[in-house]
Amino acid sequence: MVIFSVLLIAVFGGITRVSTYNNAKVAVLGAAGGIGQPLSLLLKNSPLVSQLTLYDIAHTPGVAADLSHIETRAQVTGHIGPDQLGAALKGCEVVVIPAGVPRKPGMTRDDLFNTNASIVATLTDACARNCPEAMLCIISNPVNSTVPIASEVLKKHGVYNPNRVFGVTTLDIVRANTFVAELKGLDPARVNVPVVGGHAGKTIIPLISQCTPKVEFPVDTLTALTGRIQEAGTEVVKAKAGAGSATLSMAYAGARFTFSLLDAMNGKEGVVECSFVRSEETECKYFSTPLLLGKHGIEKNLGLGKLSAFEEKLVADAMGELKGSIKKGEDFVLNMK
Ligand SMILES: NC(=O)c1ccc[n+]([C@@H]2O[C@H](COP(=O)([O-])OP(=O)(O)OC[C@H]3O[C@@H](n4cnc5c(N)ncnc54)[C@H](O)[C@@H]3O)[C@@H](O)[C@H]2O)c1
């Protein structure tokens, strides 16, 4: 009888634990935007999400009403303006932030700093007050600065946990997988290229030597491929000719990252994603490397692995810019009133 009871407790205890994040409350901040809308659609379509709160400074009641008619169980609510931000965030396990302005042709991601820095700081401040333990997934650019900004704001509130703050760089991995697959005639879904460093120009460092399956390129092709991955965002900005930057592929990448995180929080083992996080792997305070995700966010930083000479140079060349962008973000919060 005792054994039976213990078994019952173990089974039902297990079910309760496993189902916690199958009932995850996820917030999208900037949900009415070019990324926010398709990202919210993908999240609404997932069995991992039971509550989806959509926050923006405009249009969220309409986006929420629209999504709420989809026959999946996630309850969708729309929240508009700062007065409704707290309600969107209360009880959230995961917050995804694509709020802010995107690039126009000729702009770098850093040109967005002046507008997006304060947006990310304000939104993180609200997260610190309303859901201090939530996983924060930051999409807003420049990611190399917005992740340090979010981290410093959380520190000010005394609620910073570096294992729970992620800069979403998944689109760089998605692009690298696609371009390698194109060149080698492979199924892109079976290609995995780790991309490390940061998320802007030369700080985006694809590790083609660590690609699975193993691939090899002559040096001129490798150089061109690396350049294309680094400038793929600009390829989209130019093609959209003033109508913004990547939104649909970014929504896919943001959803992929969020689902990996929820799977890992849910107890799935062996979930690995690259992300721009607080790091001890290089001399940069923040750096993207493959991360083993777990119930509490980052379980283990898997580090850079073995680099080719070509990749070692890319890492060395990125350090100056990356450190500058990180410091710019930290200084912004330091000087905030
Ligand atoms: N990490 C990446 O790989 C990646 C890729 C593409 C784009 N981005 C970045 O994502 C961000 C959003 O891009 P987009 O194309 O969706 O832009 P968008 O202009 O279409 O949408 C942005 C949304 O943010 C909202 N917003 C503005 N200020 C806000 C605030 N204070 N609170 C809440 N919402 C606010 C706007 O109302 C708008 O709906 C940009 O910074 C862009 O550079 C990142």
TrEMBL record:
It catalyses: (S)-malate + NAD(+) = oxaloacetate + NADH + H(+). GO terms for biological process: malate metabolic process; tricarboxylic acid cycle. GO terms for molecular function: L-malate dehydrogenase (NAD+) activity. Transmembrane segments: none annotated. The keyword NAD applies. The active site is at H199. Keywords: NAD, Oxidoreductase, Signal, Tricarboxylic acid cycle. Residues 169-333 form the Lactate/malate dehydrogenase C-terminal domain. SUPFAM superfamilies: LDH C-terminal domain-like, NAD(P)-binding Rossmann-fold domains. Homodimer. This is Malate dehydrogenase. It comes from Scleropages formosus (Asian bonytongue).
